Every structure is written in structure tokens, then in C-alpha cells.
Recover the amino acids of this structure.
């Protein structure tokens, strides 16, 4: 039996068994990788100098159906934490259950929408009742893992980033936060509670951002008894379909960490350290299937230049940890307008951080010696010797990510047509009819991305016209008289504002002959939102499909609507066991670029060991499965969206105009000797362009080592 550890804190640090402990942590989300990957992720994390792993808990995945709990396979949180402990790593568990995390519904199960009178994350009894039920169940499940019971979990978090919505809910929101605090205390976990950006009373308030040193003074004023803990140090940023890939340089990440520790920070968690993959339909609205996050360990779990550059920094911080933690926060010594020195010294050791916060190089004197400081950098000087320069990446640490096609991997390609609503046998219709369109989630309950909307469209002589969907989300594919006619323009907006605003209206220019036409709209959801601010309403109001009306030019379509939730191929499990029940056609040249096609590609397991991806360049949009397991949504729409202005000079855009995501992770654990890759292609593509690729990292000097680990 493990010996329980006493975890507490003082104004400088987290205390474990009375000893101040420097926390160097990395976020690894257990559902975004597979159990076979976990040991290597833990080993590499330890090797890079982490002493802690942080993860959210994904209520939306553990309880997909109300009252039915799943902790198997990649949801095996208990095993994940046990592995961390085996590798000598503490665990920070962020329970939420609202977690944001770019996951579907911010971590809340979609069935919560159907609880009567519910409103999320405010003083609402139905929500609080369900939240408390889950949290108490979860804490009982993980209790043996708590440090107070001899386990690795040293800190826990309830709620998350409440400051983002505090103004919306006012006094009722603060009342809810007090309830969260009381709930946390009543759980008797025996470890400190933390909460980032808008903490409840009784929790350590922690920081999020690209840099945390500017927040230290205010934190010390607000919480003089609490240590400075940075629970989300963003080493990159997430990607959304239709926008460029985001990168942040290793040098800038190292600068942010060293600058924070210099000024008195004693706990850092990289969000993300390993981002991984949003398997299935688990990504939030617009979030790519890859959650690589430009993190120090890439999506496949391999090291990058960033992890190697940071590992050298971590080694020095651990070497001087006792010195750093024994001292009070040092006062900065000015060396110039934006240059500072922070010195930690004892009778036997000294460590000085020389910080240049300016965007240009500067020089300073350290004693009698003149030292050049690169722009936006920190030099660590230990006992008179320069130990580390955040702005200099060792050439031997530079890694280049490559994708090597596996020759002649795909051995067979076949297809099956997904029928239009009018082509389905009557016995398989399951249609809902109504005088007005019905919102999609009330029909699909988020068990499918897809819902058909069909009605009659009458024209009177117009050759050209505009079909407008007023009150619609997310992607619409328009079919007229059984023929594909148009699709939603991209890029879509992540933050769309009010449901009455322009972001929820889509228009399509069509050429139609006079007369009556059969209009069918395939509505495609691209994940549920992660927070209120994405729709300017409580999350429970989230909507998909068509809930308003359709208009041809200025005329509202008044005819009866037929709604058909889901795809026939989904209901028949064509991606799995059901594939044997239909006749698959051999591909010919006439079959490519046809919409509404199920494709099956057979391939043998490659002889080599390593990480593998499928290159879907040449396809357009849909869902992909490997041997019956959904690897995620794919969408090859070009990255034409503009980067966020608030991230300027920190996050850089890469692969502009190319697809946001071209390569899709195939977990080794899911591969068999003979494999089937199944795609449901919504718009039409050429499967001959699909390739199986091995992911490799090559060591070597590059012209731009700051952009090391990108495709």
C-alpha cells in the first residue's frame, strides 16, 4: 500500500509532505491517444524533465448515454493515472465537468439538453443536480488515486475559466461558483483545489495564456497566500477547418517559461504537451480532427525540436529548484528600458535570469562582463556561467517532420452509394414531417452529424435565383431534383454571434427551370460549441440544421418539410459489421468525384514499425473509419481564413490556402494484418489520390529551426 502524501501550499509553492515542489507539468488528454501510446508518452515526458501530467476528465465521453458509464480502452482514466505514477509523475486532474478543451460541448454530455428547465453553468438546480451526481461518482472512482490515499493526484480542479462568462450570469453566476466551492470542499479529497481564470473561494486561482509573468503582480495582490501556478501555458494553438495551421516557435515558448520562473512562478503546465487526436465525432465546432496544438510531443507522440529545447531548460530549473523555492520572489534589477535581472542566491549557489522583453536585441553588463541579449529572450546564468539561452536552439535538437508514402499499400477500392431521401425504401424512411423545418439536434440527439431536409421548390420562369437558409448551421449540401447543386461557402466563423445574426444565414445561387423542383438539403454538423461566447447564448441553446425558414429569392418556401435524421449507411453500420450486408462496387473512372459515396480501401499492415497516417488529399469532406473505429471528421477545405489578430507575433500561420488538415492519424493499436479504411464522402473525391504514409522525424540543421515540427 502506498503511503499517503500530504499536499498543501504556501505563498511560494505547492508543498508535498511539507517540501516546496517546483511543478513542471504537461497536459496529455487520455481520450486523445490510445492506451498503447501512453507508456511512451509518459517515458518521453519524464525524459524531457516533466514531473507532473495534467489531464481534463471528459464527462461527455464517459457518460454518452445518461446513466451508462464507460471507463474502457482510451477512457481508462484509472490506468492512465497509474501509468503516470509508475513513471514517477504526479497528476493534476481537472474534473470540470465543464472543461472547454475544444471538445464537443466543452465536455458536457449532449443529453443534458433534454433535461427539463436546464441552463448550463449558472445557479440552475437541474444542471447542478446532474453535475453533482457525476462529480461525486467520478471522485469515488478516482479516490484511491488521490495523494491523500497514496496515489499520484496532487491537485484537482472543478469548473474552468469562469471569467469568460461571469458577466453574462452576474449574481447568479457568483452564487453558482460559491456552490461549486462548497461541493469541492464536501468531496473531502484531501488535496488542494485549483481553478483557472475566475476562481471560486477556497481554490488556488491559476493563470492561462501565452505569457504569465505580466500577471504575477496582480496575482500576488489578489492572493498573497497562494503560489503562482500557470495551468495553461499555450505552446501553440488549435486548428479549425478553413483556417491556417498554427505554430509557435520553440524559442518563444522557452522565453515565456523562463520569464515566468524568473519573476517568481513555481508551477507551469504546458497546454498541450501532447495534443493528440479528436477521434470519432469528439471535436468541438470546426475543430480539426488533429489536436496537435503544435505541442512539444506531436500528434503521433514523437518528440519535436520544441520538446528537446524545453528539456534543457527543465533540467536547469530542476537543478536549481531548491534555490528557487527557498527564496522569496526577487525584485527585478533594471538593466535597460525593457531588460531585467532576477537573481536567486544562497551561500553556495546563484542563478540569475537576464531577461530582454523588447522585440530587439540589447546588451547589458553582468558585473564587468558585457552580455548580448537576443530579442525576447532569457539567459540563465548559473554561478557565473551562461547555462541556457531561450533564443538559441541547439542544431542537434532540430527535428523535421516528414510523411513517407508506403508504396502500393492500398490493394482494393470499392464503393456504395448513400441514397437521397427519395431513393430510400419506404420501410427505411423514418422521416419526420412538419409544416416548418425542425432543428436538427432535437432529431439526431447528436448521435449523427447528418440530417436531410426536403421540400418542394416552385419557380416561375427564373433562370437564376438565390436559395437562402435563414437560421441554419453548420454545412449545407444542396440537391435539386436528385442532382448536387451547391455547398456552403467557407471558411465558417468560429464565433458566430446571435442566432439572428448573419453567421446563421447561408445563400446559394442556383439556375433552375420554371416549375416544381424537389429540394433536398443534407445538413452536416461539424461539432457542438465549447462555450457560450460562440453563440452569444447559454450553451443549451446550441442549434444545428435548419430551424428558421428557406427562401427562394424573396419568397418563403411554405410547403411541408420532411426531416430524415442520420444516413442509411450509418444506420446499417457500413463502416463495420454491416458492410457485409451490401454489395460493394468496383471503382471505375466514372465513379470518382461523385457525392454521397461510401468508399472502402483495403490495405495490408506495413512491415515497418512506427506512426502512420492516411493522406486524404484529393477527397473533400466526410467521416473516416479504420477497421470499424471512427478516426474522425475530415475536411480538405482550403485554409483561407484570417488568423486571430490578438495572437499576432506569437502564433504564426502556416500552409495558407492548403487544406487545414491533410493527414489523419491511424493508431497502430487499431491496425490489423488486413485493414479496411472506410470513408463517407459527402461531396465527391478521387480515392486514387489517397495514400498510407509513415510519420518520421529527421534530425538535422534547418534554415528555420523555429518551424521544426510541421508538415
Amino acid at each position: 500500500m502506498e503511503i499517503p502524501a500530504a499536499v498543501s501550499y504556501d505563498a511560494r509553492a505547492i508543498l508535498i509532505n511539507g517540501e516546496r515542489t517546483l511543478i513542471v507539468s504537461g497536459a496529455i488528454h487520455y481520450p486523445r491517444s490510445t492506451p498503447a501510446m501512453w507508456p511512451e508518452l509518459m517515458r518521453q515526458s519524464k525524459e524531457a524533465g516533466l514531473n507532473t501530467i495534467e489531464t481534463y476528465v471528459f464527462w461527455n465521453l464517459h457518460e454518452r448515454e445518461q446513466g451508462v458509464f464507460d471507463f474502457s480502452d482510451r477512457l481508462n482514466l484509472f490506468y492512465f493515472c497509474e501509468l503516470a505514477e509508475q513513471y514517477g509523475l504526479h497528476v493534476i486532474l481537472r474534473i470540470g465537468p465543464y472543461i472547454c478543451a475544444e471538445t464537443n460541448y466543452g465536455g458536457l454530455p449532449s443529453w443534458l439538453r433534454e433535461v427539463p428547465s436546464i441552463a448550463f453553468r449558472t445557479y440552475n438546480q437541474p444542471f447542478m443536480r446532474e453535475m453533482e451526481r457525476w462529480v461525486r461518482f467520478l471522485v469515488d472512482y478516482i479516490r484511491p488515486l488521490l495523494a491523500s490515499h497514496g496515489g499520484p493526484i496532487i491537485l484537482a480542479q472543478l469548473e474552468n475559466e469562469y471569467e469568460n462568462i461571469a458577466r453574462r450570469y452576474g449574481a447568479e453566476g457568483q452564487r453558482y461558483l460559491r456552490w461549486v466551492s462548497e461541493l469541492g470542499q464536501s468531496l473531502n479529497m484531501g488535496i488542494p483545489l485549483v481553478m483557472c481564470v475566475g476562481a471560486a473561494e477556497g481554490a488556488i486561482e491559476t493563470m492561462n495564456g501565452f505569457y504569465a509573468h505580466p500577471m504575477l503582480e496582480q496575482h500576488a495582490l489578489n492572493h498573497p497566500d497562494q503560489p503562482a501556478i500557470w495551468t495553461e501555458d499555450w505552446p501553440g494553438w488549435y486548428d479549425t477547418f478553413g483556417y491556417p495551421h498554427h505554430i509557435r516557435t520553440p524559442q518563444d515558448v522557452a522565453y515565456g517559461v523562463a520569464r515566468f520562473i524568473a519573476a517568481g512562478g513555481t508551477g507551469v503546465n504546458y497546454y498541450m504537451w501532447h495534443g493528440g487526436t479528436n477521434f470519432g465525432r469528439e471535436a468541438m465546432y470546426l475543430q480539426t480532427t488533429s489536436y496537435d496544438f503544435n505541442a512539444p510531443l506531436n500528434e503521433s507522440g514523437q518528440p519535436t525540436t520544441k520538446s528537446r529545447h524545453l528539456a534543457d531548460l527543465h533540467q536547469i530549473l530542476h537543478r536549481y529548484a531548491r534555490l528557487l523555492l527557498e527564496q522569496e520572489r526577487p525584485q527585478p534589477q533594471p538593466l535597460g528600458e525593457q531588460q531585467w535581472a532576477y537573481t536567486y542566491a544562497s551561500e553556495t549557489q546563484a542563478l540569475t535570469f537576464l531577461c530582454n522583453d523588447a522585440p530587439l536585441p540589447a546588451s547589458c553588463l553582468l558585473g564587468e562582463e558585457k552580455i548580448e541579449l537576443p530579442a525576447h529572450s532569457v539567459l540563465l546564468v548559473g554561478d557565473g556561467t551562461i547555462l541556457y539561452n531561450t533564443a538559441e536552439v541547439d542544431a542537434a535538437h532540430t527535428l523535421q517532420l516528414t510523411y513517407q508514402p508506403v508504396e502500393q499499400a492500398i490493394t482494393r477500392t470499392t464503393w456504395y452509394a448513400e441514397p437521397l431521401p427519395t431513393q430510400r425504401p419506404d420501410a427505411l424512411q423514418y422521416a419526420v414531417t412538419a409544416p416548418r423545418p425542425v432543428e436538427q439536434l432535437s432529431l439526431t440527439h447528436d448521435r449523427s452529424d447528418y440530417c436531410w431536409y426536403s421540400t418542394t421548390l416552385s419557380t416561375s420562369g427564373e433562370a437564376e435565383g438565390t436559395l437562402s437558409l435563414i437560421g441554419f448551421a453548420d454545412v449545407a449540401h444542396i440537391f435539386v431534383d436528385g442532382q448536387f447543386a451547391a455547398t456552403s461557402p467557407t471558411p465558417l466563423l468560429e464565433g458566430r454571434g446571435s442566432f439572428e445574426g448573419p453567421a446563421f444565414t447561408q445563400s446559394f445561387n442556383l439556375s433552375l427551370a420554371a416549375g416544381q423542383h424537389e429540394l433536398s438539403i443534407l445538413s452536416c454538423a461539424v461539432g457542438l460549441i465549447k462555450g457560450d461566447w460562440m453563440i452569444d447564448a447559454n450553451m443549451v441553446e446550441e442549434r444545428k440544421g435548419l430551424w428558421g425558414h428557406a427562401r427562394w429569392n424573396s419568397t418563403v418556401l411554405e410547403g411541408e418539410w420532411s426531416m430524415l435524421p442520420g444516413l442509411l449507411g450509418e444506420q446499417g453500420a457500413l463502416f463495420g459489421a454491416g458492410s457485409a450486408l451490401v454489395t460493394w462496387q468496383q471503382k471505375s473512372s466514372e465513379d470518382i468525384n461523385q457525392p454521397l459515396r461510401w468508399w472502402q480501401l483495403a490495405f495490408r499492415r506495413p512491415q515497418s514499425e512506427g506512426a502512420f497516417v492516411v493522406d486524404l488529399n484529393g477527397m473533400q469532406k466526410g467521416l473516416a473509419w479504420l477497421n470499424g473505429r471512427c478516426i474522425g471528421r475530415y475536411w480538405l477545405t482550403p485554409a483561407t481564413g484570417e488568423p486571430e489578430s490578438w495572437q499576432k507575433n506569437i502564433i504564426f500561420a502556416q500552409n495558407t490556402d492548403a487544406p487545414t488538415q491533410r493527414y489523419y492519424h491511424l493508431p497502430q493499436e487499431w491496425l490489423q494484418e488486413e485493414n479496411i479504411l472506410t470513408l463517407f464522402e459527402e461531396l465527391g473525391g478521387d480515392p486514387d489520390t489517397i495514400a498510407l504514409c509513415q510519420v518520421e522525424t529527421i534530425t538535422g540543421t534547418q534554415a528555420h529551426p523555429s518551424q521544426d515540427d510541421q508538415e
